[in-house]
Amino acid sequence: MQSQKFTLMLESVRRLMRSGATARALNVLRKGRPADVAQVLHALNDLDRHAVFTALARSDTKLAAASISEMSLAESVELLKTLAAEEIAQVLQELPSDDAALFVAELPEELRESLLDLMKVEASTEVQELLSFAEGTAGRMMTPNVFALREDLTVSEAISAIQRASRDVEMVYYLYVVDERNHLVGVLNLRQLLLAPPTTSLKKVMGTDVISVRTDTEQEEVARVVARYNLLGVPVVDEENKLVGIVTVDDVLDVIREEATEDIYALSGVSSEESVQSSPLRSVRLRLPWLLVNLATAFLAASVVHLFEETIEKVVVLASLMPIVAGMGGNAATQTLAVTVRGLALGEVAWENSRRVLLKEFLVGLANGIVNGLVAGLIVCLRFGFSAKAALIGGIIALAMVNNMVIAGIAGTLIPLVLKKLKADPALASTVFVTTCTDVGGFMSFLGLATWLIKFLK
Amino acid sequence: MQSQKFTLMLESVRRLMRSGATARALNVLRKGRPADVAQVLHALNDLDRHAVFTALARSDTKLAAASISEMSLAESVELLKTLAAEEIAQVLQELPSDDAALFVAELPEELRESLLDLMKVEASTEVQELLSFAEGTAGRMMTPNVFALREDLTVSEAISAIQRASRDVEMVYYLYVVDERNHLVGVLNLRQLLLAPPTTSLKKVMGTDVISVRTDTEQEEVARVVARYNLLGVPVVDEENKLVGIVTVDDVLDVIREEATEDIYALSGVSSEESVQSSPLRSVRLRLPWLLVNLATAFLAASVVHLFEETIEKVVVLASLMPIVAGMGGNAATQTLAVTVRGLALGEVAWENSRRVLLKEFLVGLANGIVNGLVAGLIVCLRFGFSAKAALIGGIIALAMVNNMVIAGIAGTLIPLVLKKLKADPALASTVFVTTCTDVGGFMSFLGLATWLIKFLK
Q1: Cβ count near A239 (within 10 Å)
Q2: Other beta carbons within 10 Å of B116
């Protein structure tokens, strides 16, 4: 939808809601696609959003369902909660079961049971089956009603089967072929089907080297498979290679976006639950714990400085220079962290090739430390005149810089690797650990060297 | 491909290359898919990678071409450069023209001309056409040979047209319909085609509300459209609405990944050209300029501290506490930056709704500042005994914290917004500007307050 068209739609909905004409606002929305409705709802204030959505769910359950499929998970759940349990159940029934499962999992426990009771048996059973798989696996994100063809069909029988297929099955460009016991044995695409002679059996036309994932494959791996082989969808099989569902590329796209956001947020100390839309109060609640952890580590670094107060008292210029070494170590560590965490996410770094990465980051830290150390030393000399004392302080800052940048390289590589090895999110706590290393390391090496050489500095 | 199968493939290629049996190594590779060959090449050392790829390009140009399509751009270009110009031209000819254009654009200028001369006229013309569009637009990333059907065809004629279509045209699930002057007028999918009566004209079956992008649409916007409407591909039209190409979802997936990496890197001061594979020397070259910019701002912050050296000399404990206020401001700013930059990337924040976001971040900064300030003040009191002096220093740290966190909220929102408004990358330089604000702001407010109240502190 062109942005102009969207603005017009949004403006008329806003105007109609101001004059209380909810029914007419809904008529305007009905002209848009579900994704557009989602965007309009998103742009309304809380009051209007709730009012419009409630009215929509009551009058056009299908559109209401399709629209919340296009929103962020948090926003969908917020809107669903404004409805009565019966109404939620009706909306959920209209959704593909993977989406319905996603929402049910996010709703309060006590509501979940009654919703599953209120839904039609078929829909409810599908949702419960999906929920039996762990969060973040292919089983949880797949659509269970995948369209499959038996291998003993002929091409023309297959074409009639497609024509008869219900609108509800998920069919992309690929057609999966199964044997009599539903084992996944082949794949062909619609175009190959059109090109083959009508009486040939599928067995002869299909490709047998099918790329599939298992119900317990992690969603990151599913995304990697789809991206690597440029697929439009990937079949999901159980431990016996029986076809149980399909993950389509649009779900993969969402996973990739979501994980990128998570990585950026985790590296910056932001919860993945937050977004620009979160209320100030919610943002404070989500960010505060992380800041308090950082406050604790800041006091840890401060207590290192405290150890050297006698030295600072004697050569007070050290106070203004010490944050440089600590801060630059932090900057270098942030660079290393970004490369390592992204490499882990894209599957380019693993525990197995970590020695090479570690050696590289050691060398990079050393080289960057030498250049930055020399420049910093030179600036100190220039600012405090070329006295022996200035030269010595310059030398101290240079050495401390080299030391701290090497610490940055090693910590920035090792900490996310170890977290990953421990099955924790490598992005999540890395920043706080790593910057604590570079803060403590920076103050310690700079002030330590200065204390050791104090008699030449006075 | 299962990771076990991949490891076996990699190991045998390595072993065969060690014994100089390049031809046999190639035979092993031929059993894999292009994406697997790309992964094996990726895992080899530089020497083997170049040797295997050169041999592959000479013996199986098609597979060589398909494999480099699956690598990172930097790696593909590195491998292409190991070939002679004639060989590069042959590989490029085998590629879809969007990929060929991508590589040609990255090759040295002097090579480019001769490559376009060496390629077959048809391929070369297509590449040159793509290169006439600006980098990062739909025109540059599209495949120009899109399959289209004329609106006056009947369904059965359309099916024969599909059967006759060359293997080279890009066809996904969608079939685009054009009028006699090639204007895009409709769309239908293969399944709708199979369901329609054979003698109906396409005009009656097709949907007319086609989502399309223009050749000058930015790739981020293309990605948003495809993701929002869950498309498998989107048609590209010129300014007269004539169909000129298609962007498929696999290209969009690459864009989304690439942009996420760019955002993470930009926020951390890493060039988008870097990856885990970059050599140490290259990494140093890419990271050093950014570190030197940070070094300059670190000296700026140091000169603020320098102004207050007299105060520090009198109350030396301030030296150990001052990095806390500056650092915590940096942490809060990083949180705000991550949310704002991601919001901008996902299209949730724009200049138009920025006032609301700014107000929110002001409130969040205020609240987080008050809590962190109180906690920090309390810790100071606990550590230095509940004397009047300790209480005063606690009060100073609390006030400075509030002030600096508000600065963090405002700078972390405004700076990326302004950069975006100026058409610069909002992630790129934000971090250095914002942390300079919080460093200077932190030292200034903490040491400034202490200097103002110095007579009560001694």
Answers
A1: 8
A2: 18
Q: Which of A380, A404, A382, A369 is nearest to A457 (CA)?
A: A380
Distance CA B159, CA A115 (A): 46
d(C-alpha B205, C-alpha B186), whole Å? 9
pLDDT single digits (tens) A131-146 = 889 888 999 989 888 8
Tell whether domain B280-457 is in CATH 2.40.110.10: no
Write the pLDDT tens digit of every residue in A376-401.
999 998 888 778 888 899 999 999 99
Supply A164's token pair: 């008869």
Model ipTM over 0.95: no
CB interface of B with A, residues 306-335, below 8 Å: 306, 309, 312-313, 316-317, 319-324, 326-328, 331-332, 334-335
Any CB–CB contact under 8 A between A341 and chain B?
A: yes
Q: Dihedrals φ, ψ of A422, to 5°?
A: -80, 10
Kindly state whether A269 is in contact with chain B, defined as any CB-CB distance less than 8 angstroms.
Answer: yes
User: Exposure string (b/e) for A34-64, b if CB count within 10 Å is 16 or more?
Assistant: bbbbbbbbbbbeeebbbbbbbbbbeebbebb
Residues of A in contact with B210 (CB under 8 A): none
Q: CB-based contacts of B136: which residues, under 8 Å, 6+ apart?
A: B218, B219
Percentage, residues of chain B above pLDDT 90: 32
Per CATH, B3-136 and B280-457 having the same topology is answered no
Say which residue the tokens 């359309």 belong to. Answer: B158
Interface check for B295 against chain A (CB to CB < 8 A): the answer is yes
d(CA B385, CA B390): 7
Which residues 65-124 of chain B have a CB within 8 Å of chain A?
70
**CB within 8 Å: A335 and B33:** no
User: Which amino acid is present at A386?
Assistant: F
Which run of H or of E encompasses A32? none
The stretch A11-19 carries a mean pLDDT of 90
What ranges do the domains of chain A cover?
3-136, 148-255, 280-457
Taking the C-alpha atoms of residue B292 and residue A163, their distance in angstroms, rounded to an integer, is 65
Is residue B171 less than 8 Å (CB to CB) from chain A?
A: yes
Average pLDDT score, chain B: 87
Q: Residue A337 carries which side chain, given as an amino acid letter?
A: L
A-proximal residues of B, 223-242, CB under 8 Å: 226-232
Residues of B in contact with A253 (CB under 8 A): 226-227, 249, 252-253, 256
Chain B CA closest to residue A362: B280
Q: Give φ, ψ of A281 to 5 degrees.
A: -60, -45
As given in the structure block, the two tokens for residue B224 are: 């948003």
Look at domain B3-136 and name its CATH class. mainly alpha
Q: Alpha carbon of A452 to those of A305, A311, A324, A456, B77: distances in Å? A: 15, 10, 20, 9, 51
A142 within 8 A of A247, measured Cβ to Cβ: yes
Q: pLDDT tens digit string along B222-251?
A: 998 898 888 889 999 999 999 999 998 888
Q: How high is the pLDDT of residue B238?
A: 93
CA distance A314 to A125: 75
* Residue B161 reports pLDDT greater than 90: no
Judge: B324–A295 Cβ closer than 8 Å, yes or no: yes
What 8-state DSSP symbol labels residue A134?
P
A143 vs B: CB within 8 A: no
Do residues A343 and B276 lie in contact, with contact meaning Cβ atoms separated by under 8 Å?
yes
Determine which of B190, B383, B435 to mutate to test the interface with A (most A C-beta atoms within 10 Å). Answer: B190
| A261-274 residues labelled b (16+ CB within 10 A) or e (exposed) | bbbbbbbbbbbbeb
- Within 10 angstroms of residue B342's Cβ, the number of other Cβ atoms is 26
In the block, residue with structure tokens 């405290």: A306
* CATH class held by domain B148-255: alpha beta
Q: B1 pLDDT band (50/70/90 cuts)? A: very low
